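Newbie here. two chains, one complex. Structure please?
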Amino acid sequence: MTEQPLLQVKEAGIQFGGLKAVSGLNIEINRGELVGLIGPNGAGKTTSFNLLTGVYVPTEGEILLEGERLNGMAPYQVTRRGISRTFQNIRLFNELSVLDNVKVANHSKAKHSIVSSVLRLPSHFSGEKEMEEKSLELLEIFQLHKLKDEVAKNLPYGQQRRLEIARALAAGPKLLLLDEPAAGMNPQETHELMNLIAFIREKFDLTILLIEHDMNLVMGICERIYVLDHGQLIAEGLPEDIRNNPKVIEAYLGEEVPKDA
Amino acid sequence: MKKIKGFWLFLVLSIIVYGTVQVLINAGILNNFYSNTLIFISINIILAVSLHLVIGITGQFSIGHAGFLAVGAYISAIVTMKLSLPFPIAILAGGLIAALAGLVVGIPTLRLRGDYLAIATLGFAEIIRIVFLNIDAVGGAAGMQVTKMTTWTYTFICLFITIAVITNFTKSRHGRACISIRENEIAADAMGINTTYYKVVAFAIGSFFAGIAGGLYAHNFYIIQPSQFGFLKSFDILIFVVLGGLGSLSGAVISAILLTVVSTFLQGYPETRMIIYSLVLVLVMLYRPQGLMGTREITDLFKRKSVKGGS
């Protein structure tokens, strides 16, 4: 008996008016895998993420997480079922402190009600304390705990990226989607990021799907890669196979010109 | 521990303020004009703080707050004048019905963003006003006579509850959820926050307290008329919040006090009143575009000092 994949995307796609942004998307991710999604600019990678997280409702096909259909769920419902994400252009809660950014993502794990908070009942204090402890634990892993009271917008770029990942983890995902986590990082920072991703994957028993342009990172840590171009999957496989796949090379570099021309 | 200490400090301070004013009123040192001004200031603080929750915390730009004030005013007036029930019940009923109106208005309109929401809420407030204008049972355009029942005690209790509830709400996971919507709605949604729910909750709580303020307001002026609840009233409340600094509760309180005092004492100069009032607004916005307090609270000032002193 084969185990049910964590995520199944079956023939999913979305159309904006007459434009098919993504179509016929088939992705299967097993528990514990680290999978890459690559493709040239405008290929539909982020759109695919938006489909998976409920930002867009697919106009065709279906998306299943542990067999449960996610089509038409609001983003917060998808998150509560176990998919959380980071964004290509950082979307932190800028005016909130680093700690509060993580606490917000902890929100749906806590139980205390509005009434208990307003009346300051014991459940409010215990709930808030638990949120704070959990959040601090996470920040320590990301070495951001010394900056916990700093306002998020004041952090340097690399730390903002790290905080975004920490926040995504606080939502307690089974599947973590990273949208270009290394964008704008120098090689040293990218290297640290690779280690960090490998570490949190072990530590939190995560399955990860990441979009990335940095081929060193993708080839270095992904076990499997999907390649998108013009809204369609053009290849799927191990990093070595993808590297040598003529279709992929064509998508990235253009068609090969015959040598004798 | 610190948080609890803060609450007791707040409670003690409140009792001192209340007690002092009450003693001064009883001793006849504060005449009717001053005690009325104090009540009016408190009502405006309640309004400012309730709108602060919607605009400053949740970031939903609603400019129809006078509509909920009107609901609270009329409902409470009906409860005391027509049903002859006690005043506290009237205040509560005004608040509850206003909260209900907030739900009815909020559920469809809070899908809208930015200026669209502003226009929709403004429209709803006008609808509420015109409904009261056309009900003869509450006097139509001529207005409704109301006995004066609002006292400093009632007003202060309501003010205290408003500030306590909204502070406690804001400083909890629920308040953080609302702030995250203000900061970045897409990210809040992606982090598992039910954004629609929290927008509606904040709106309903805001409307509830606006309704409470309405009850106090109605029983302070002998008569209520629909014209008192036009969009200019909504803008007055909006100005308290913006001038105080979006996101700062103490800012809203301070600017409500300041502007009410300015506008009360300018009543002696009706020709220049609006000019001076407007100049105050223009000057503040020129020199403090972030509002009087920015996003900070008055308590932050003390915190910073104590941190410095301690280290």
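Moderator note: Chain A has a mean pLDDT of 91. Chain A touches chain B at residues 53, 55, 74-76, 79-80, 84-85, 87, 91-96, 100, 103-108, 110, 112, 114, 117-120, 124, 127-128, 131, 167-168, 170-171 (CB under 8 Å). Thread marked as resolved.
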